[in-house]
C-alpha cells in the first residue's frame, strides 16, 4: 500500500472534516481534475484549492485565470477550468450545492465521464454502482491476465467485460487491487514480471 494512488488518489484528496455536502463536492472536483493526470499532480492541485476554502461558492467566485493557476499543471487544465465552473453553477442552481446521487445525473454534468461517476457514487455516496476505476492500469492488467473473454480496446469496454463475470460484491476492490499494482509492478513498458507474485499464473508473463 505504498503506491501513489494509495495515499494521493482521489479518495484521499477531500477534507474529511468538512460538512458532508462539501466533502462530496470536493470528491467530484478531485475526480474531474484527475483525468489524464498523475495522482501526485491532482493531489497538489486539490491542496492549493482547499487552502482557499474549496466549496461551490468559492469556486464560482474565483475568476478563470486564478482557477487556472491553482489547478495547473493538471492535464487539459484550460478545459477543466471551464467544466468546473459550468458544473459548479449547475450544482448550485439545481442541487443546492450538493452533487447528484445517480450515475445518469453525474454523467450529464460537464466534464464528468462514466468512470468518474461510478467513483463518485462509491466514494461520495458509498454506493457501488459499477466497477468504478477502470483506468489505463486496470484496462492493461485485465487484458494481460485475460480477465476479459476477448481483448478489449478501451477502459470502458474493459469495465463492461469485467462486470459480466466478476461478482458484484468484489467490484469495489478492483481499484485498490490493480491501480497501485500497475503503478509499481505491472508497468506499461517493461513490466517487472520477475518480481511479480502473479508470474506463474499470468499469460503475459508466460509469453516473455
From TrEMBL:
GO terms under cellular component: nucleus
Ranges where the HhH-GPD domain occurs: 33-184
Source organism superkingdom: Eukaryota
Catalytic activity, EC: 4.2.99.18
Catalyses which reaction(s): 2'-deoxyribonucleotide-(2'-deoxyribose 5'-phosphate)-2'-deoxyribonucleotide-DNA = a 3'-end 2'-deoxyribonucleotide-(2,3-dehydro-2,3-deoxyribose 5'-phosphate)-DNA + a 5'-end 5'-phospho-2'-deoxyribonucleoside-DNA + H(+)
Signal sequence, start to end: none
Annotated keywords: 4Fe-4S, DNA damage, DNA repair, Glycosidase, Hydrolase, Iron, Iron-sulfur, Lyase, Metal-binding, Transit peptide
Cofactor dependence: [4Fe-4S] cluster
Pfam families xref list: HHH, HhH-GPD
Top enzyme category: lyase
InterPro entries, A to Z: DNA_glycosylase, Endonuclease-III-like_CS2, Endonuclease3_FeS-loop_motif, HhH-GPD_domain, HhH_base_excis_C, HhH_motif, NTH1
One of the GO BP terms on file: nucleotide-excision repair
Gene Ontology molecular function terms on file: 4 iron, 4 sulfur cluster binding; class I DNA-(apurinic or apyrimidinic site) endonuclease activity; DNA binding; DNA N-glycosylase activity; metal ion binding
UniProt similarity note: Belongs to the Nth/MutY family.
Known partners and oligomeric status: Interacts with YBX1. Interacts with ERCC5/XPG; the interaction stimulates NTHL1 activity and NTHL1 binding to its DNA substrate.
Protein name: DNA-(apurinic or apyrimidinic site) lyase
Protein's organism: Homo sapiens
Species lineage: Eukaryota, Metazoa, Chordata, Craniata, Vertebrata
Gene name for this UniProt entry: NTHL1
Amino acid at each position: 500500500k505504498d503506491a501513489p494512488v494509495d495515499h494521493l488518489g482521489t479518495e484521499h484528496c477531500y477534507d474529511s472534516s468538512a460538512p458532508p455536502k462539501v466533502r462530496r463536492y470536493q470528491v467530484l472536483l478531485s475526480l474531474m481534475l484527475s483525468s489524464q493526470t498523475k495522482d501526485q499532480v491532482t493531489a497538489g492541485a486539490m491542496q492549493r484549492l482547499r487552502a482557499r476554502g474549496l466549496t461551490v461558492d468559492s469556486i464560482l467566485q474565483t475568476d478563470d485565470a486564478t482557477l487556472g493557476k491553482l489547478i495547473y499543471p493538471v492535464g487539459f487544465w484550460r478545459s477543466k477550468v471551464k467544466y468546473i465552473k459550468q458544473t459548479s453553477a449547475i450544482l448550485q442552481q439545481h442541487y443546492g450545492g450538493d452533487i447528484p446521487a445517480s450515475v445518469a445525473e453525474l454523467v450529464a454534468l460537464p466534464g464528468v465521464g462514466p468512470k468518474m461517476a461510478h467513483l463518485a457514487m462509491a466514494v461520495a455516496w458509498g454506493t457501488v454502482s459499477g466497477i468504478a476505476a477502470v483506468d489505463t492500469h486496470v484496462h492493461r492488467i485485465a487484458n494481460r491476465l485475460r480477465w476479459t473473454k476477448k481483448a478489449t480496446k478501451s477502459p470502458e469496454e474493459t469495465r463492461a467485460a469485467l462486470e459480466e463475470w466478476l461478482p458484484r460484491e468484489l467490484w469495489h476492490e478492483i481499484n485498490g487491487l490493480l491501480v497501485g499494482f500497475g503503478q509499481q509492478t505491472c508497468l506499461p513498458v517493461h513490466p517487472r514480471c520477475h518480481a511479480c507474485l502473479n508470474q506463474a499464473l499470468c499469460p503475459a508473463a508466460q509469453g516473455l
